[in-house]
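Box 4.2: Ligand-aware structure prediction
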Amino acid sequence: MEGVERPQPEAKPLHLTSEPVCIFLWKESAGRNRLGIEPGLLQAPSTGLQACSVRAEVIVAMKLHVDDTVQSGRVEVTFIRANGERIKATGKEGDSLLDIVVNNSVDLEGYGACEGTLTCSTCHLIFKKEDFDRLPDKPTDEELDMLDLAYDLTDTSRLGCQITMTKELSGLEVQVPATVNDARS
Amino acid sequence: MKLLRLGHYYSHHCFLPRRRLTSTVTSIPKICIVGSGPASFYTAQHLIKTVPRVEVDIYEQLPVPFGLVRFGVAPDHPEVKNVINTFTKTAKSPQLRFVGNVTLGRDLSLKELRNAYHAVVLAYGADKDRELGLKGEQLGNVVSARRFVGWYNGLPCDTDFPVNLDVEEAAVLGHGNVALDVARLLLTPIDKLKSTDITEHALEALSRSRVRHVKVIGRRGPLQVAFTIKELREMLNLPDCITVCNPFDFETVRSAVPNLERPRRRLTELLCKAADLSPSGNVDSNSRQFHLVFFRSPLSFQPSPDVPDTVGSMQLEVNQLDEQQHAVPTGSTETVQCGLVLRSIGYRSTQADPDVPFDIDRGHIPNISGVVQPGLYVAGWLATGPIGVILSTMTQAFGVGRAVEADVSSGRVDVSQARPGHTAIGKLLNDRGVTTVSWKDWERIDAVEQSRGKNVGKPREKIVDINEMLAVSVGTGGT
Ligand SMILES: Cc1cc2nc3c(=O)[nH]c(=O)nc-3n(C[C@H](O)[C@H](O)[C@H](O)COP(=O)(O)OP(=O)(O)OC[C@H]3O[C@@H](n4cnc5c(N)ncnc54)[C@H](O)[C@@H]3O)c2cc1C
Ligand SMILES: NC(=O)c1ccc[n+]([C@@H]2O[C@H](COP(=O)([O-])OP(=O)(O)OC[C@H]3O[C@@H](n4cnc5c(N)ncnc54)[C@H](OP(=O)(O)O)[C@@H]3O)[C@@H](O)[C@H]2O)c1
Ligand code: FES
């Protein structure tokens, strides 16, 4: 991120959309970090980190998305694990559910192995019937072909890498199937 | 289709251990994995994530990692190989050590590994294949699909694989995905392969190939095929290639379709559609043809009248299904012309070391969810038999990771006493004069392969000779 020229941010707080992966402390006399963001504007609600409390030492999370859509097209998704655990994540309109898992570092082991190229089906998600029906894009034959290899396939299954988030879908709740197949042999 | 580059996304994060052990651990848990295919890397990923301070050492027989992702997955399926990005991130963890060019059973024994490590995970896959045991199987150009795959994918031991593509009729025996991979490679227009990481020698031979008709022959019917729908669809969509089926094979199939589970139903519907579109009368013999042949088992191979000691035709037995859906002979036979036969009836694991508890009949290491006994585990195809895609291998491997973690944290595997790990094994290898390849060394090979590929418009040009790999790995093998 060093040396990246960034426009001055508007005076709105920027939210860290994910927990920080790596935290650097930079001392900069000007009170700005390398992103050119005033410390007071950096907030990481999910971790309770408040950069504004550190005055000249600026906390920068590597995965901060300095992105002006953070304010506008924000969408929210809740991933529900097989054990019932709920994981809230945010993204922006146009993100796929795989993008949101990746950008939020949602800890779903093995999720998205082929990186969204429709060749692995590790990004399988199960939707509520009413959500499934209102997804704007119906699955293509190619997506169904890959889905057919997924474990715990249901009638409301889709591949997360093929679902594009819209404003209307914000607040979506999706079930993450237990990939644990009984590998006894 | 959405394409996404994950690049750095997963970095750092996956390696922060999430759970802490309740008991006080005095020494560092040292675990080694034999093999570096998907089973190995997924097991390692899980261990690094869940076992605090663990050190994982991977011993791989080749100087290069990734097993069948590099040497199995077809060159025209580059997306499947994206898993390599995640494996690479795991490999770059300070808790992981890759030691290439080390073979269990030759350079090291299982006993030595078990003495040096708290736990050993065997994940050396299945690198032999099943044979039919039929008359004429030793004739020239009756070859194993596994070796053909190794040849086009640059497996060092298959570089000089003797295959003659100067024939028109080829037959592939078996109805699995490997059979479709090799059939597709034989029927794909050469221009589509030029920009893949297929080896130069294979590209050159395939560009001169005269093969036009490929019969993919299964002993059972359309409802029993082992290949999957995506791979079938690719065959049906091959440019300038006609799919030919016998409509009689589908007589009883259609009525069964509605009662099938979705995956089998969709696959069968696509097969029926292919049968419907199959040309009835004579097909122009100059066209490229993919024949899907059902209910036929090979009986014997006959030499060609023109080329001595080489196959020219094959006798097939016509089958029907019994109540258990097994193939049983009807008594009638037929002969098909074929100058090349690729046997694709499955891979086979071997017992790499006499101490490996191996079930020869089933061709795997008996295990319960990956556990052979506390301290000894088995992951991937070696555990399950040679079936399943990366998804299934991954799921099984995570299960093995969980089993190891559970044994370590419960004390079933005692990690309170320090083990020497690579300190002892590295010394043994050194004493035995084994040249090893580190991850850094592999990165040198990788960079040279990619740069050679760039010069010819490919993602990489694989180095196919072990000595050259070793030279390049230490920076002396050219660029
Ligand atoms: C031709 C082919 C194409 C495939 N294509 C696809 C595909 O497109 N998509 C998909 O999802 N799946 C595909 N698969 C399946 C996939 O490759 C397997 O699920 C997976 O590779 C199994 O992983 P593994 O780690 O158990 O074995 P492997 O990948 O075979 O890894 C075993 C490793 O152990 C090493 N080894 C062997 N013996 C020793 C020894 N004695 N000492 C040390 N190391 C040793 C080997 O060199 C190898 O690196 C394909 C399989 C084949 C055969
Ligand atoms: N693109 C991909 O995703 C991809 C590519 C390649 C491989 N793979 C996976 O890798 C695994 C291995 O593939 P594979 O093709 O080697 O094995 P496979 O899927 O098990 O298929 C083996 C085929 O050989 C037949 N066969 C076995 N013994 C026979 C005999 N004695 N005589 C005649 N036919 C015989 C089987 O028929 P029966 O059913 O009658 O036994 C079956 O059709 C599979 O799980 C496959 O899906 C995936
Ligand atoms: S990420 Fe592989 S199919 Fe969606």
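In the box above, the bound molecule is flavin-adenine dinucleotide. Chain A is about 10% helix and 25% strand.
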